[in-house]
Design a protein that fits this description.
It is a single chain. The chain is of the alpha/beta class. The chain folds into six domains: 3-53, Single Sheet (N-terminal domain of TfIIb); 64-131 and 330-535, Rossmann fold, CATH 3.40.50.740; 133-324, Dimethylsulfoxide Reductase, domain 2, CATH 3.40.228; 581-697, Barwin-like endoglucanases, CATH 2.40.40; 702-816, no CATH class; 829-884, Arc Repressor Mutant, subunit A, CATH 1.10.10.1100. The chain contains 30 helices and 34 strands. The strands form eight sheets. The chain has a seven-stranded mixed sheet, with helices on both faces. Strands 22-24-23-26-21-25 form a six-stranded mixed sheet. It is globular, with a radius of gyration of 27 Å. The structure holds ligand MGD (2 copies), iron/sulfur cluster and molybdenum atom. One ligand MGD binds at residues 100, 102, 127, 130-131, 290, 294, 327-328, 394-398, 400-401, 421-424, 427, 439, 441, 445, 472, 585-586, 593-594, 596, 659, 671-672, 675, 688. Residues 2-58 form the 4Fe-4S Mo/W bis-MGD-type domain.
Length: 885
């Protein structure tokens, strides 16, 4: 029998519904759920490739103690003993959890309950600190609670959508598709993108404001002041529902138009146009994401935006509002359970004695954390200086994702006791675990997640648990039981936990707290299994169809009013003579964070296969670096070596690097080794987007490219980057050392079986080396080396791993590194769903396809998930412009 399960995508905060189908033979396929109100059937490239990432390669299937397989009992006993001993000897402040917005709400709830109610410490923080905490802090300052007022539909209903520090096209692709479709239907709708670089999102923008890094506060303070001088303030709303207007205006009013121009570096026409659009459009939605949050002025940026929406009363009504886009699938669920070190549970506050008492009574717990715990950066500092004796890391990879990552790694290595719960055995963090616990992954685990618009959806299991893997909540509850807290953690399954969480949200609430899902308290298992996606609030006894907040005020400060916050632009330029460039870090379309899952898909890895530094052509010229050569990035903190990508999308003086590559996939591309641990003073969120660096050309003697059926090992190169390819692996390399015996090198690195001899050549004069190793008619490995970046048709060569090579001419074509006339080279992948490459698209444009739609008809490209449509449009436009010129 075929099995169909409705579940939710485990990647971004859009929270798309997915239907997973498992055939009788166990083959899994996924498609978008047409009924799910987040995506109505759409999926992006990452969601579409989910079935390619659930194999058991690299999974940890049994608990391990010090690298040796152990029983669950031994592993859990040890964890309980070590945590109990640390608490007994050094107090509850000596233990810590570092968890993740990728946990399910049920896992998260149990972790938070155990730490705050039973250990009596608030030393639980989460990777959401690196992600959403400035939004949380900004919301709490303005609204008195961490409330996202709007819903996705508002993006479709607005007449002006502002995307501030959000690369929506790549990071929330389905929401971007919804926005793009709405704009196509209603061409009068305007989109403004605020981002120092020209991203694919800018493709649908009527106005792209390429501001200087971190000058958003000046931009929005100037807007606030402009709204006042142009009589655009909604006096009634402000009088009835807010306080602090005069104080905030006293500060913003001093930010002149000229000062905004000077700070942001924008042309005055553009700034005028932006202010005009905002002032004259009633239905405005401002979405913001990491370009706003991940800054030393992140919280102020958030409040500068909220001030403008409060002043105009544009909040909580259809088509209006500020909208913090959450990154992770369950960033919002984590906030609901109070997963941050400075929150309690169910949107209650740790600083509030009544809240503490209420939560403790509800839990019947022996203790309750009295004060906020350590925020991520401080938490790892406390690990480093020995204050934290026992640390449990769950569903996050801090050795890659935390700023000052080498110091974080050293801290973890020095910590007396480290537990890591993950799905992979080998990650940059897991390799330092004393106890490594195998967790259930997506498709195996079961629970709920909350997306950016407060919509709670079920993730449902459709696969059997692999090996001895267990759910994260179960691991926590078992440790709780062993520490004597069995009664409070006697859950049979996620339904029990969700029910308790829902009941706590309603406990003594009566409208005083925004988060209330009392309608879902006390569910039966069957009812829990059947939960359809719903938005909160849903208090007991009433069904809310309207879930927006604040159209008529009703904020959560004690006077029920919102606060304007006086925010002042600060110095933002971090460069210095020895570090004259600015480093900006972020995401690419087809990888997810530290690549533990998306890195498994050859299709996803073909879009961008190497870590890179994107820089402006004139900067490249000054440094003396050519395209595809290597650059070395240095800060006071550390260094990285990556490929140079030279484009006009970058502003001069600014370099963009992706966050994804780590020690499992590249020699030296873990970008957070370069990023210092500078944080926002209110939220503690690291400033990951504005780092002073130097850049220089990295000198090498040889560049190389290779592919192989086996995973390469022991590649001792100055630079290497590994990526999954259909039927094997691709490896890009560069060597600073002089030549060696390359045939032996290949034998070692690719584990080439005895008896397989290379065909190919070594050219002493040019320095070129080319080898292909055939195992019968199958290509086993190929290796190309040159003194400059290797000129081979990479995507074509990669397809040869899966091709039969019966005749010699084909084999020689591989050595040549380019196809014969009868074997087309599709070029770099643009559409990963259908594997369509740049050369094919260029061919079609030359053949008369002059629009994205025409390319779609001819090649299918862009017709599945649509994530590449912006890139296709750029290619078509570029071609036509070149032809016209
Ligand atoms: N493909 C993909 N999608 C993802 C993820 C992923 O790993 N891969 N991760 C998910 C997660 S957890 C998150 S948090 C989201 C993040 O989603 P986004 O925030 O959209 O992604 P980023 O690339 O981190 O950064 C957004 C933009 O901020 C810009 N920026 C930098 N400095 C400034 C500034 O000073 N002001 C302004 N206005 N903009 C600036 C950057 O140039 C960048 O284009 O993505 C989610 N979606
Ligand atoms: N410089 C810079 N640094 C950044 C950012 C940036 O823009 N710039 N962005 C920051 C942001 S917004 C974020 S969200 C973080 C993300 O950074 P991380 O959270 O470190 O990244 P992930 O790769 O998502 O880590 C998830 C881990 O959990 C494992 N895992 C997957 N499923 C499960 C499960 O069900 N249970 C358990 N126990 N484990 C599981 C995965 O294998 C992986 O090791 O990075 C932050 N770091
Ligand atoms: S937009 Fe893509 S990554 Fe995000 S939830 Fe939807 S399918 Fe998943
Ligand atoms: Mo994030």
């Amino acid at each position: 029998m075929e099995k169909k399960v409705h579940t939710t995508c485990p990647y971004c905060g859009v929270g798309c519904g997915v239907i997973a189908t498992v055939t009788r033979k166990g083959a899994v396929s996924v498609k978008g759920d047409p009924e799910h109100p987040s995506n109505y059937g759409w999926l992006c490239s990452k969601g579409s490739a989910l079935a390619e990432t659930i194999d058991l390669d690299g999974r940890i299937l049994h608990p391990e103690i010090d690298g040796r397989q152990a029983s669950w009992d031994d592993a859990l006993d040890l964890v309980a003993d070590k945590f109990a001993a640390a608490i007994a000897e050094h107090g509850p402040g000596s233990v810590a959890f570092y968890v993740s917005g990728q946990l399910l709400t049920e896992d998260y709830y149990v972790a938070n309950k155990l730490m705050k109610g039973f250990f009596g410490s608030a030393n639980i923080d989460t990777n959401s600190r690196l992600c959403m905490s400035s939004s949380v802090a900004g919301h709490r300052r303005a609204f008195g609670a961490d409330t996202v007022p709007g819903v996705y539909e508002d993006l479709e209903l607005a007449d002006l959508v502002i995307l501030a520090g959000s690369n929506l096209a790549w990071c929330h692709p389905v929401l971007y598709q919804r926005l793009a479709a709405a704009k196509e239907n209603r061409p009068g709708m305007k989109v403004v993108v605020i981002d120092p670089r020209r991203t694919m999102t800018a493709d649908i923008a009527d106005l792209h404001l390429a501001i200087r890094p971190d000058t958003d506060v000046a931009l929005f303070a100037g807007l606030f002041s402009h709204l006042v001088s142009n009589d655009a303030v909604d006096q009634n709303y402000v009088a009835a529902n807010t306080s602090g207007f005069a104080e905030a205006f006293a500060v913003a009013g001093c930010v002149s138009f000229g000062e905004v121009l000077e700070r942001t570096g924008l042309p005055s026409m553009q700034l005028r146009e932006f202010y005009r659009l905002f002032t004259t459009t009633e239905k405005v939605v401002t979405c913001y994401s990491q370009g706003v949050n991940q800054s030393s002025s992140g919280t102020d940026k958030v409040n500068a935006i909220l001030n403008c929406h409060l002043a105009t009363g544009r909040i909580g009504r259809p088509g209006t509002g500020p909208f913090s886009l959450t990154g992770q699938p369950n960033a919002m669920g984590g906030r609901e359970v109070g997963g941050l070190a400075n929150m309690l549970a169910a949107h209650m506050a740790i600083e509030n004695a009544e809240d503490r008492d209420r939560v403790q009574r509800f839990w019947g717990s022996p203790a309750i954390a009295e004060r906020p715990g350590l925020k991520a950066v401080d938490l790892f500092r406390a690990v480093a200086d020995g204050r934290v004796k026992a640390l449990w890391i769950m569903a996050t990879n801090p050795v890659v994702s935390m700023p000052d990552a080498d110091a974080v790694e050293a801290a973890i290595r020095a910590c007396p006791f480290v537990v890591v719960s993950d799905i992979l055995r080998q990650t940059d963090t897991a390799r330092h675990a004393h106890v490594l616990l195998p967790s259930l992954g997506w498709g195996e685990k079961s629970g709920t997640v909350t997306n950016s618009e407060r919509r709670i959806s079920r993730q449902r299991a459709f696969l059997d648990p692999p090996g001895e893997a267990q759910a994260d909540w179960w691991q926590l509850a078992e440790v709780a039981r062993r520490m004597g807290f069995g009664r409070a953690f006697a859950y049979e399954g996620p339904a029990d936990i969700f029910s308790e969480h829902a009941a706590l949200s309603a406990f003594e609430n009566a409208g005083t707290r925004d988060f209330d899902i009392g309608a879902y308290g006390g569910l039966t298992i069957n009812a829990y299994n059947e939960i359809a996606p719903f938005q909160w609030p849903q208090p007991a006894g009433q069904v809310n169809s309207e879930t927006r907040f604040f159209a008529d005020g009703g904020f959560y400060h004690t006077d029920r009013k919102a606060r304007f916050v006086a925010v002042k632009p600060r110095e933002t330029d971090r460069t210095r003579p020895d570090y004259p460039f600015t480093l900006n870090t972020g995401r690419v379309r087809d990888q997810w964070h530290t690549m533990t899952r998306t890195g498994k898909s050859a299709r996803l890895s073909s879009h961008i296969a190497e870590p890179f530094a994107e820089l402006h052509p004139r900067d490249a010229m000054e440094i003396g670096v050519g395209n595809a050569e290597l650059v070395e990035i240095r800060s006071q903190q550390g260094r990285a070596i990556v490929r140079a990508l030279i484009t006009e999308r970058q502003a001069r003086g600014s370099i963009f690097m992706p966050i994804h590559w780590n020690d499992q996939f590249a020699a030296r591309a873990r970008i957070n080794t370069v990023v210092p641990a500078t944080t926002d003073e209110f939220s503690g969120q690291p400033a990951s987007k504005n780092v002073a660096i130097s850049v220089r050309r990295f000198e090498v003697k040889h560049y190389a490219f290779s592919l192989s059926q086996t995973k390469p090992a022991g590649q001792d190169a100055s630079y290497w980057a590994l990526a999954k390819a259909e039927g094997g692996w691709r490896l890009d390399l560069a060597f600073a050392a002089p030549a060696e015996d390359w045939a032996s090198w290949c034998r070692r690195v690719f584990a080439i079986p005895n008896g397989i001899e290379p065909i190919g050549y070594t050219d002493a004069q040019t320095g070129d080396v080319r080898f292909a190793f055939f195992d019968g008619t199958r290509l086993f490995a190929a290796f190309f080396l040159a003194r400059e970046p290797v000129a081979v048709a990479r995507n074509w060569v990669i397809t040869q791993l899966k091709t039969e090579h019966a005749n010699l001419r084909n084999r020689l074509a591989i050595v040549a590194g380019r196809p014969g006339a009868d074997m087309p080279d599709s070029g770099a992948t643009v559409c990963s769903c259908f594997g369509v490459g740049l050369n094919q698209i260029l061919g079609s444009v030359r053949g008369g396809c002059h629009s994205v739609e025409a390319i779609g008809k001819a090649l299918n490209a862009g017709t599945n998930c649509g994530s590449c449509r912006a890139e296709i449009r750029n290619i078509v436009d570029g071609c036509l412009a070149a032809a016209a010129g």
